[in-house]
Amino acid sequence: MSGAPARWEPPAPEEEAFVAPRTVTDLAACHFTHAIDLPGYGPVAGPWDMRATWRAFIGDVDVAGKRVLDIGAGSGFLSFAMERAGARVTSLPLDRGASWDIVPFPGVVRRLVDPPVEEHYERIADAYWLSHAALGSRARVVQGSPYAIPRAVAPLDVAVFETALMRLRDPFRALHAAAQLTRESLVVTEFLPRRFHLLPYLPGRLARGMYLVARSDDRARFGTWWVVAPETLREFLRILGFGETRVSLHRQRLAGGWHRFYTVVGRRTEPTNPDL
């Protein structure tokens, strides 16, 4: 059972930080988290479909000519979309080991949970590499924890959190790790569950908060932690030196329906304190 806080791990040496590409040609071996159009394969379905809306997902930040880290990349649609828009992209999956914070419910035994989850994420990785080859991508995949991002990815111009914070035990710690390597913009996009739809419109102190989604009576959802209010994220980014912030609301197609999301974009105005 994983009940202890994630341990700090030193950044991987550059030669060990990046994942070697794998050769995958069988669609049946893959799990696509996002719909994507692939040369030689045609349209491929996935629960997410951001093909027409991905720019809103990243807050309409211009990534052309930028070095971008995609945190929570899944099967890679957003990484490849940003690359087509002119970015130099590195993908950081949130899948296993130090990257996956299980809610430590009583009776949830990690050694029993991990094997089927590992198999699932291997199929997502296969989808990434099949897409990578089909698109002729030059994007790289880095391995490591979002709490200790390998410094081999730096310097970054933009870091994008792709609905990642709700899956992390310590969202601020992950933001701090990315901020230390990012010189221009942090982009954070999160899902707004139905019961939180009014959260972006609340006034004053009511608008600031982190809301625990994990519930002791719903132990099957051991991979989801928080809904972080947009105003709280703006304050997090200001603390980290990204003093100019803005929030946008948008809808994304997921699991056959349209769902509400918000994106917070912070632009750097001061250095991030790396020592605290």
Q: What is the distance, rounded to the nearest whole angstrom, between the alpha carbons of the first and last residues?
A: 29 Å
**If you compute it from the alpha carbons, what radius of gyration comes out, rounded to the nearest whole angstrom?**
18 Å
Low-confidence stretches: 1-13
Number of helices: 6
What kind of sheet is the major sheet? 8 strands, mixed
Anisotropy-based shape: globular
- Average residue-wise pLDDT: 89
Number of strands: 12
Could you walk me through the main structural features you see in this protein, from its secondary elements to its overall organization?
The protein is an alpha/beta fold. Helices cover 22% and strands 24% of the residues. It contains six helices and twelve strands. The protein has helices at residues 14-17, 54-57, 77-84, 110-134, 171-179, 230-239; strands at residues 36-38, 42-44, 48-49, 67-71, 88-92, 140-141, 156-162, 182-191, 210-212, 226-228, 244-254, 257-267. It has an eight-stranded mixed sheet, with helices on both faces. Strand 1 (36-38) and strand 2 form a beta hairpin.
Topology:
Elements: H1 14-17, E1 36-38, E2 42-44, E3 48-49, H2 54-57, E4 67-71, H3 77-84, E5 88-92, H4 110-134, E6 140-141, E7 156-162, H5 171-179, E8 182-191, E9 210-212, E10 226-228, H6 230-239, E11 244-254, E12 257-267
Parallel strand pairs: 4-5, 4-7, 5-6, 7-8
Antiparallel strand pairs: 1-2, 3-11, 8-12, 9-10, 11-12
